[in-house]
UniProtKB/TrEMBL annotation:
<protein>
    <recommendedName>
        <fullName>Ice-binding protein C-terminal domain-containing protein</fullName>
    </recommendedName>
</protein>
<feature type="domain" description="Ice-binding protein C-terminal">
    <location>
        <begin position="183"/>
        <end position="207"/>
    </location>
</feature>
<feature type="signal peptide">
    <location>
        <begin position="1"/>
        <end position="24"/>
    </location>
</feature>
<dbReference type="Pfam" id="PF07589">
    <property type="entry name" value="PEP-CTERM"/>
</dbReference>
<dbReference type="InterPro" id="IPR013424">
    <property type="entry name" value="Ice-binding_C"/>
</dbReference>
<keyword id="KW-0732">Signal</keyword>
Amino acid sequence: MKNFKAFASVSALLAALVSPAAMATPVPAGPTFSSVGGHSTHLGNDFDPAWVAGFSAAGFNLHNMQKSGELVLSSAASLSFSFVGKEANYNNGFYFGNSDGAVINSTTNSAGAYTFDAGSKIGGALDFWFKSNNLGGAIHNGADALGLILSHDKKSALVLFNDNYRGDKDYDDMIIKISITTPVSEPETYALMLGGLALLGAVARRRKNRV
C-alpha cells in the first residue's frame, strides 16, 4: 500500500508538471529559416493561387512576400525540397548545391508529388538557384526574380520564382517548398523526465531510510 501511495504521489506530481497551465509557451527549438535583405511586398493581382491545390498553405501568409530576400538557415539541419507547382509554360529548372543539371524541372516533375532530401547542410545562406527555361545564367538565392514566404514557425519556406517571360511579374512561375526535417528534442521533455526520475529517487531513498 505504501508503494502504491508513493507511486500515486509521483504520478500526480508529473501530471501537474505536464499540464498546460504548468508549461510555458515553448520557444521554437532547433534550426529555423530567416529572410535576409530584400523588402516586403504584397503579391499582385496577377498572382495565381491555383498552384496551392492539394497543398496545405495554412502555415503561410500568402499575402506577404519578401522580394529579393536571401533564404538563410540558422544552423546545420537536414532539408527536404518539394515541387509545389507552377503557372508558366517554360520548363524552368531548380538547382541545389553542386548539381550540374536541374534537380527539379517544372514540366517534367510532378507538382505536389516530387520531393527530394538533401541531407545535413551547414547553417548560412542556402546554395540554390533557378534557370529560366533551363537556359542562360543562374538566378541565385537572393536575386530580384525570387520571392520568399516563410511559414509561421520558420521551419519551412516557399521560394517563388519569376522567370524571364516579361509579360507578368506574378512570382508563381515555379514554386519550391524547402522544409527543415531535422528532428528536434524538446527541452521540456528532458526536464520532465529528469524531474520524474529525481522524484522517484527521493521516494526510494525515503523508504530505505525508514527500513
